[in-house]
Automatic annotation (TrEMBL):
Protein name listed in UniProt: Aminodeoxychorismate lyase
Pathway info: Cofactor biosynthesis; tetrahydrofolate biosynthesis; 4-aminobenzoate from chorismate: step 2/2
GO-annotated molecular function: 4-amino-4-deoxychorismate lyase activity; transaminase activity
Pfam families: Aminotran_4 (PF01063)
UniProt function note: Involved in the biosynthesis of p-aminobenzoate (PABA), a precursor of tetrahydrofolate. Converts 4-amino-4-deoxychorismate into 4-aminobenzoate (PABA) and pyruvate.
EC number: 4.1.3.38
Length: 286
């Protein structure tokens, strides 16, 4: 990674420590913005089209015009990636409704969006393969978690509650049904079949989730997208979490109780191998 870190802000590359955003920015005052996290392997953004499509969907959902053209985003991301040394890294993209002259709840009549991109190190390959501990918590977030909004205070509180309970992550449920993790997608394996909650406005359409489903189909692993009851977590042979930075990780315990045998399961190990090969192919530019 390059030192010092380089970021992009409103059309310019600059040292991250030199970036300045107005206190009137609506992302700061209201959390009025959206974001993406895009992993890069060998300097190549992973599933870029899917991430940009989700970014466009989030922007449309909050009625914020896309500030860059379809060709503009890949160019900016390439600049930031290479300015930070290429290789393996994650790119954080944030777009807010900008800096109007005064603070009002309604959309400003005139305001240029704030566009910010920064780079962070990716966890080492396999960093989460040994397994995670989790706790079950009631999902107290808003009803539009399909929008990747920067207003993440509920997620922050849920993750902190998990940490305070001695766990790595929270698995969330609402009315007896699993939604997702505080910052991850949930999968279960039972009887050799993979399942994950079906998409609805209460959970994020994860790009890594999509990749896992594609890999399962390609390799003949039975898979369902359906409602997953909270009690199924305790009956599952395996439970996984996935995200852009975790990739796919096994859950070893839920509230101190082992999942299956309390070790990474055979279906996870197969999926990890398939994902690793895809990661390597991305790094080779295939």
């Amino acid at each position: 990674m390059g030192t010092p870190a380089t970021c992009y802000l409103n059309g310019e590359l600059m040292a991250l420590g030199s970036a300045r955003i107005s206190p009137l920015d609506r992302g700061f005052l209201f959390g009025d913005g959206v974001y993406e996290v895009i992993p890069c392997y060998g300097g190549v953004p992973f599933r870029l089209d899917a991430h940009l499509r989700r970014l466009a969907n989030s922007l449309a959902a909050i009625e914020l015009p896309d500030p860059l053209s379809p060709a503009g985003w890949p160019e900016v991301l390439e600049q930031v990636c290479q300015a930070n040394g290429g290789g393996d890294q994650s790119l954080y993209v944030q777009v807010t409704r900008g800096c109007p002259e005064q603070r009002t709840h309604e959309f400003p009549a005139r305001s240029e969006p704030t566009v910010f991109v920064m780079s962070s190190p990716l966890p080492a390959a396999g960093a989460f393969a040994d397994g995670l501990s989790t706790t079950l918590l009631e999902d107290l977030r808003w009803a539009r978690c399909d929008i990747k909004a920067v207003a993440l205070l509920p997620n922050v509180l849920l993750r902190q509650a998990a940490v305070a309970a001695g766990a790595d992550e929270a698995i969330l449920h609402r009315d007896g049904w699993v939604t997702e993790g505080a910052a991850s997608t949930v999968f279960i394996v039972r009887g050799g079949e993979l399942a994950t909650p079906a998409l609805h406005p209460g959970l994020l359409p994860g790009v890594t989730r999509e990749v896992i489903l594609e890999l399962a189909e390609h390799h003949g692993l039975p898979c369902q997208c359906r409602p997953v009851a909270r009690d199924e977590l305790h009956e599952a042979d395996e439970v996984w979490l996935s995200s852009a930075t975790k990739e796919v990780a096994p859950v070893l315990t839920i509230d101190g109780h082992p999942v299956g045998h309390g070790t990474p399961g055979p279906v996870f190990e197969a999926m990890r191998g398939w994902f690793t090969r895809l990661r390597q192919e991305t790094a080779r530019g295939r």
